[in-house]
Amino acid sequence: MTGSERGQTMTQVDTGGTPQGDVDTADSGRGDADPGDTGPRHTGARTGPWKRGRVLAAAALLLGLFLLLHASIPNRVGNLGSLVETFLPWFGLFIPVLLAGALLRRSVPALVALLLPAVIWLDLFGGLLTDKSHPGGDLTVVSHNVGADNPDAAGTARALAASGADVLALEELDPAARRTYEKELATAYPHHTVLGTVGVWSRLPLSDTRPVDVAMDAGPLGEAKSADVKLEYNRGLRTTVATDHGPLAVYVAHLGSVRVNPRAGLSSGQRDAGAQSLGRAVAAERNERVVLLGDLNGTLDDRAYAGITSRMRSAQEAAGDGFGFTWPAAFPVVRIDQILVRGVEPESSWPLPATGSDHLPVAARVSW
Question: Does pTM surpass 0.85?
Answer without folding.
Answer: no
